[in-house]
Write a structure and sequence with these properties.
alpha/beta, TIM Barrel, 297 residues, 8 strands
Length: 297
């Protein structure tokens, strides 16, 4: 399986919190030019948690229409209400999305039995391909490799899993457990600096937010693997390691990703959902310094 780098795309808003459709098209054109493997709409970095159902529908229509099948479009379907998750999944499929990514309910922790029961209810009601999404820091619990294997055995439309965990141990165990039985099952890391380890462990690559600001770098990483150019693979790893500090600059970090994108020349507004932090002058300088150290300015 070829390594892939998918982008969980940022969402562009105007000063009143409405979607900025023209700016959003600039984002998708930027990603297409950069050569990413696919786009995740309404991921965590896309601020799905702060958007109305109407805004989510608007964004799905825009993304599918702008990308026009040139690369896969996966839509995040996440809600604390299962009815809204299914409504969003149905709409995504109806608009031509290639798949949906389903985050289990968040806020209250769930036992393994409840997690499995949730997906047993949702997945058969999805009319297309489904990716599982594990993000314990946000849901409060783990979607374990054992539960994932049980689900994949029962539901043929589950095709992959995004693992947003800080340690590669969890992802590696997931790959070891599922891939021997289901060799086409896709396992992606949710942290950019795990890309190399993921691929070397037999995974599919990464769904990482840094590809919003440097899609050409992430695409070059894929090509370096294809060409067995370990010198290039190592050099890009060092650049990504520098860029990872952007994630630590604020909570949430999305404003700093958007600032990095504008510093690299993408003319998009930097507005984020309330109450995301405002970037101070010192914060802007820090973002610029990171980009300079990574060789991106």
């Amino acid at each position: 399986m070829k390594p892939q780098y998918l982008t969980p795309a940022v969402t562009t808003f105007d000063g009143q919190g409405n979607l900025d459709g023209e700016a959003q098209k600039l984002v998708y054109d930027h990603l297409l030019r950069g050569g990413v493997s696919g786009v995740l709409v309404l991921g965590s970095i896309g601020e799905f948690f702060a958007m109305s159902m109407g805004q989510k529908r608007e964004l799905i229509r825009l993304a599918v229409g702008c990308i026009e099948g040139r690369i896969p479009v996966i839509v995040g379907a996440a809600s604390t209400r299962v009815e809204e998750t299914l409504e969003l999944a149905d709409f995504a499929y109806s608009q031509g999305a290639d798949a949906v990514m389903v985050l289990p309910p968040y806020f209250f922790s769930l036992a393994d039995e409840s997690v499995e029961a949730y997906y047993d209810y949702v997945v058969p009601r999805c009319a297309g391909r489904v990716y599982l999404y594990n993000f314990p820091d946000r849901t409060g619990y783990d979607l374990s490799p054992t539960v994932a294997l049980n689900l994949v055995r029962k539901h043929s439309n589950i095709v992959g899993y995004k693992d947003s965990v800080a340690s590669m141990n969890h992802t590696r165990e997931l790959i070891k457990l599922i891939r021997p039985e289901f060799p086409d099952f896709q396992v992606y890391s949710g942290f950019d600096d795990h890309f190399v380890h993921n691929v070397m462990a037999g995974g599919s690559g990464c769904i990482g937010g840094l590809s919003n600001l440097a899609p050409e770098l992430c695409s070059a990483w894929i090509n370096a693997f294809k060409e067995d150019d370990l010198t290039c693979v190592t050099a890009i790893q060092k650049q990504i390691d520098q860029l990872m500090s952007l994630y630590l600059m604020g909570m949430p970090f999305v404003p700093f990703i958007k600032r990095a994108m504008t510093l690299r020349g993408l003319a998009i507004p930097e507005h984020c959902s309330f109450p995301s932090p405002e970037i101070t002058a010192d914060g802007g300088t820090a973002v610029k310094t990171v980009l300079e150290r990574a060789g991106l300015l």
